[in-house]
Amino acid sequence: MRRLRRTPVLRRLVAETKLSVDDLVAPLFVREGLSGQDRVPIDTLAGQYQHSIGSLVAEAQQLIGLGIPALMLFGVVEQASKDDIGSAAFDPEAIVQRAIRALRESCGDEIVIMADLCIDEYTDHGHCGVLRSPNAKRLGNRIQQAPNAFDNSELGLEVDNDATIELYKKIALAQANAGVDVVAPSGMMDGQVGAIRTALDEAGYFEKIILSYSAKYASTLYGPFRDAVEVSLGANDDRRSYQQNPANRREALLEVELDISEGADIVMVKPAITCLDVIRDIRLASEVPVAAYQVSGEYAMIKAASQAGWIDEESTVLEQLLAIKRAGADIIITYFASDVARVLGR
Ligand code: PBG
What is the per-residue DSSP string for 35-66? Predict the structure, then answer.
């Protein structure tokens, strides 16, 4: 076996998997209230920023220069702009819509513009859906008299699937109107892909692509992201009633099957490195492009260990992205996108 491993060119010649800049999507954050070229460093994601629209556009131009084919946009708003239904997600003048318009104007079709489609960044409770209280009827007018006198456990608050989907349709249309190429629903509501496809088609947006976060596991690895978008989810609150249980593997195939039948063009698995088996299963079971999201916690762990001098950042990143690709991902969303593009371009 060692004959084919003797020299670097030989190893290159027989490599089964190759990482390319064409595989990469860069996630970017745009924050309301910043002006000019201002950007705010994100403490939990060393090297990543909350951008003003000006600095976002400059960053997108850099990505184009590096040959990166796509970016994924996330909005960040002030606490005062949040409400219980996440209106800042679908307001035509909201930060994400303004950012999409600015990117489209400056970048044309040189980079694929993807946008996260969810409300958790914009709700005052931090959930990906609207809440309802199944106990409200029983609590009756006591609740009307003093709505704030009850805590969450008394109200038994839960995420309302179908009411949430109505909001997702509005977000899809707002992003489409602004000029997005790809909407990426990440809230894990049942039926979200079908509803969004219908809403887009009815408005004549036949060409808009749906990249579905199909197999999204409830993971601690989203922690640094939640700081990046200043999410309001309480410390003891979680998303286990809508995101997948990490114990389950077959369930991911069912999620993907449903999403494809509802019209998903691309399906995604997330996190990446803890779900290589799932990526593999989906690659073998379906013919649509498969994306994997190397999430904030995966990025932060590599950054922290390399900053401590315990691992080499560049080779660790290349090894992990290669493993994600080898598992079967066609597309990798990673905060290391620019760094990797520079390395691959050397
Ligand atoms: C939800 C969303 C999340 C991420 C992407 N979209 C957060 C969550 O579900 O808690 C996480 C991305 C990352 O951790 O890098 N809008």
Answer: -TT-EEE-TTSTT-EEEPHHHHHHHHHHHHHH
Would residue 216 show up in a list of annotated catalytic residues for this protein?
yes
Among protein residues, the one whose CA lies closest to atom 11 of ligand 1: 222
Pocket test for ligand 1, best of 295, 299, 301 (most atoms within 8 A of CB): 295
Ligand 1 atom with the smallest distance to the CA of 216 is 9
- Closest C-alpha among 99, 118, 87 to residue 31: 99
- 40 torsion bin: left (phi>0), alpha (psi -120 to 50), beta (else): beta
What pTM was computed for the model? 0.94
- Per residue, the 3-state secondary structure of 10-25, as one string, reads HHHHCCCCCCCHHHEE
Kindly report the CA angle at 339 between 333 and 345, in degrees rounded to 5? 105
Q: What is the CA(229)–ligand 1 centre distance, in A?
A: 9
Query: What digits encode the pLDDT tens for the residues 262-311?
Result: 999 999 999 999 999 999 999 999 999 999 999 999 999 999 999 999 99
Q: What is the number of the ligand 1 atom nearest to the C-alpha of 121?
A: 16
Kindly state the tokens that stand for 158.
Answer: 């839960």
270 noted as active-site residue: yes
Three-state SS for 132-180 is ECCCHHHHCHHHHHCHHHCCHHHHCCEECHHHHHHHHHHHHHHHHHHCC
- Cβ-in-10-Å burial (0-12, 13-18, 19+) of 265 comes to middle
**Ligand 1 in reach of 96 Cβ (< 6 A):** no
Give the per-residue pLDDT at 66.
98
Tokens of 152: 């969450």
Convert 100-134 to b/e letters by CB count within 10 Å (16 or more is b): bbbbbebbeeebbbbbbbbbbbbbebbbbbbbbbe
Separation CA 39–CA 26 (nearest Å): 17
